[in-house]
Amino acid sequence: MQDKNFDKLSLKFAKNIYGTTKGEIRAAVLWRDLAPALTNLEPPRLRILDAGGGFGFLSQKLAALGHDVVLCDISEQMLALAKQQIAESDTPLSIELVHSPIQALTVEQFGQFDVILCHAVAEWLIDAKSTLQGLLKLLKPSGLFSLMFYNKEALRFHSLVSGNFDYVQRDLVVKKKIGLTPTHPLYIEDVRQWFNEWQMHIQTQSGVRVINDYLKQHLPPNFDTQQLIEMELAYSQREPYLSLGRYVHFLGQSSTTPS
């Protein structure tokens, strides 16, 4: 088994992730969580690692604010798309592109970072815990770790309310793998325990798509997408909605560097 490489799905991935309402929700929640935390870090110009960042949606946004970003991805096509978008930017962007598995990143080569982002990556990894723990060696003491992962319990609940009972009885194991369906979803409590073991204090936790994925097929005639995003933001940090998010975002701050 190998970790997922999106080379063959790069354009589809880019369109499906950030070219849809789902992507708008994802971007809104992540930015709402990240923006105030970044302003509290020193120095003002931060070193940021976007680990498995694809074409660098957030990398470009952060670099536009004046930060120095290293964007690493295993997909050569994703990085080619990032290079094209960076070249077309009206603002000069300080982004270093690294074609590599995130497991291969070392302190010796890249030093340490004020912030590490790892969004929608862990659920594609065969051994997410070990990979993420290794990644945290590149995080400075008191640095921020932004982890967004696919929530296995939300996958189960969505399947239940969709009537896919056979799928649930198989413990969410699909008969045929679908291109953009994560292969290794995670339980919230497991990830929370990892953060405790890593001495990582969770500053912020949010559900991503706590409403959108449960919407009925027949919506009111006055349904408004912008209002949906506002409701997502309003309920994303409240229980039980948070735990039903298709993804969950933990923003943690380190007290020590894990060994």
Automatic annotation (TrEMBL):
<keyword id="KW-0489">Methyltransferase</keyword>
<comment type="similarity">
    <text>Belongs to the class I-like SAM-binding methyltransferase superfamily. CmoM family.</text>
</comment>
<keyword id="KW-0819">tRNA processing</keyword>
<dbReference type="InterPro" id="IPR033664">
    <property type="entry name" value="Cmo5U_methylTrfase"/>
</dbReference>
<keyword id="KW-0949">S-adenosyl-L-methionine</keyword>
<keyword id="KW-0808">Transferase</keyword>
<feature type="binding site">
    <location>
        <position position="119"/>
    </location>
    <ligand>
        <name>S-adenosyl-L-methionine</name>
    </ligand>
</feature>
<feature type="binding site">
    <location>
        <position position="26"/>
    </location>
    <ligand>
        <name>S-adenosyl-L-methionine</name>
    </ligand>
</feature>
<dbReference type="InterPro" id="IPR029063">
    <property type="entry name" value="SAM-dependent_MTases_sf"/>
</dbReference>
<feature type="binding site">
    <location>
        <position position="73"/>
    </location>
    <ligand>
        <name>S-adenosyl-L-methionine</name>
    </ligand>
</feature>
<protein>
    <recommendedName>
        <fullName>tRNA 5-carboxymethoxyuridine methyltransferase</fullName>
        <ecNumber>2.1.1.-</ecNumber>
    </recommendedName>
</protein>
<dbReference type="GO" id="GO:0032259">
    <property type="term" value="P:methylation"/>
</dbReference>
<dbReference type="InterPro" id="IPR013216">
    <property type="entry name" value="Methyltransf_11"/>
</dbReference>
<dbReference type="Pfam" id="PF08241">
    <property type="entry name" value="Methyltransf_11"/>
</dbReference>
<comment type="function">
    <text>Catalyzes the methylation of 5-carboxymethoxyuridine (cmo5U) to form 5-methoxycarbonylmethoxyuridine (mcmo5U) at position 34 in tRNAs.</text>
</comment>
<dbReference type="GO" id="GO:0006400">
    <property type="term" value="P:tRNA modification"/>
</dbReference>
<feature type="binding site">
    <location>
        <begin position="52"/>
        <end position="53"/>
    </location>
    <ligand>
        <name>S-adenosyl-L-methionine</name>
    </ligand>
</feature>
<dbReference type="GO" id="GO:0097697">
    <property type="term" value="F:tRNA (5-carboxymethoxyuridine(34)-5-O)-methyltransferase activity"/>
</dbReference>
<feature type="domain" description="Methyltransferase type 11">
    <location>
        <begin position="49"/>
        <end position="146"/>
    </location>
</feature>
<dbReference type="GO" id="GO:0008757">
    <property type="term" value="F:S-adenosylmethionine-dependent methyltransferase activity"/>
</dbReference>
